[in-house]
Amino acid sequence: MTADAGAAAEEPDDAGGGSTLTVLLALASNVGVGVLKLVAGLLTGSSAMLAEAAHSVADTATEGLLLTALNRSSRPADRFHPFGYGKERFFWALIAAVSVFVTGATFSVYEGVASIVSGENEQTLAWVAYGVLALSALIEGTSWRQALRQVRSESRAAGTPFMRYLRLSDDPTVKSVFFEDSAALIGLALAALGVGLHQLTGSGVWDGIASLLIGVLLALVAFILGRTNRSLLIGRTAGQDLVHDAFDHIADAPEVDQVVDIQTMVTGTDSVLLCARVDFVDTLTAADLERACVRLDDELREVLPDLDEIFIEPVPRNDPDVREAVLERYGDTLSRWQAEHDGRSGQGSRASR
């Protein structure tokens, strides 16, 4: 078993349950915090506090959509969707990203611009704003720690550095909560700064600038999440480590002469479709070929648990159409992998002799 496969095998069985807990905690936090921010915004007249209330509304809507994603993506495959409903998670997470932009960023930017233009917002009861911001930081921080804990746990299980895992993760639910909660904590700091400068200077421009910055922050988060889920919806390849391990395992089989082409697509969280075109040894009978394909299918599923569907197609290595398609898609990557594999195989043969 490869190191990556072993790490994947150690991944918690209740990953879906962990995602649900993370989203539910974030949802409860945002509902409570949103009400507090709205009351504080109305009492103090602070546009930054109202922007933060819109921020919480956006996050609450997002968590609701993420719960929908978790529920609908877990349905089993059927005749209408033979590869399952895993991509539902990506779709609803994309809608959640749009929700952050439309609900939170747009309102915050509008409030900020209006306050900057007028510059006359009167601020009252600033202590209410400070109290609500402190309490919100405590509640949001609890949700953020849960999301951080899960991302760290999953990155360790996958044997991947934290930032790289966060960038390449195929679980948009936890990633969305982590980014949203991180933005929420930054937004609270911006709101506190805006309220404080307004109180010190008597100018509502600072409150407006804080609101504008919160809107820009939300737009940035929406862009990052939207781009990630767009890539997964279109059909992103699996991580290179998994593809390389699958290539090596197939190429190591005694019945295989050369792996001609290999394609993967993420079809859901921890779910990958693999298609391999293989030049088998010419002396194999049809029965030998069938048995080899079945055995490789079983072995690949054992060492690489994320593989959900596997298709192995026998092809001649010198087929010009296949070669042209592979070169266009991968350049010399597969040729380099094949050369590395042949080099290792040659060393092994010499060592055995």
UniProtKB/TrEMBL annotation:
<feature type="transmembrane region" description="Helical">
    <location>
        <begin position="90"/>
        <end position="110"/>
    </location>
</feature>
<dbReference type="Pfam" id="PF01545">
    <property type="entry name" value="Cation_efflux"/>
</dbReference>
<keyword id="KW-0813">Transport</keyword>
<feature type="transmembrane region" description="Helical">
    <location>
        <begin position="20"/>
        <end position="40"/>
    </location>
</feature>
<feature type="transmembrane region" description="Helical">
    <location>
        <begin position="177"/>
        <end position="197"/>
    </location>
</feature>
<dbReference type="InterPro" id="IPR002524">
    <property type="entry name" value="Cation_efflux"/>
</dbReference>
<dbReference type="InterPro" id="IPR040177">
    <property type="entry name" value="SLC30A9"/>
</dbReference>
<feature type="transmembrane region" description="Helical">
    <location>
        <begin position="209"/>
        <end position="226"/>
    </location>
</feature>
<keyword id="KW-0472">Membrane</keyword>
<protein>
    <submittedName>
        <fullName>Cation diffusion facilitator family transporter</fullName>
    </submittedName>
</protein>
<dbReference type="InterPro" id="IPR027469">
    <property type="entry name" value="Cation_efflux_TMD_sf"/>
</dbReference>
<dbReference type="InterPro" id="IPR058533">
    <property type="entry name" value="Cation_efflux_TM"/>
</dbReference>
<feature type="domain" description="Cation efflux protein transmembrane">
    <location>
        <begin position="23"/>
        <end position="234"/>
    </location>
</feature>
<keyword id="KW-0812">Transmembrane</keyword>
<feature type="transmembrane region" description="Helical">
    <location>
        <begin position="125"/>
        <end position="144"/>
    </location>
</feature>
<keyword id="KW-1133">Transmembrane helix</keyword>
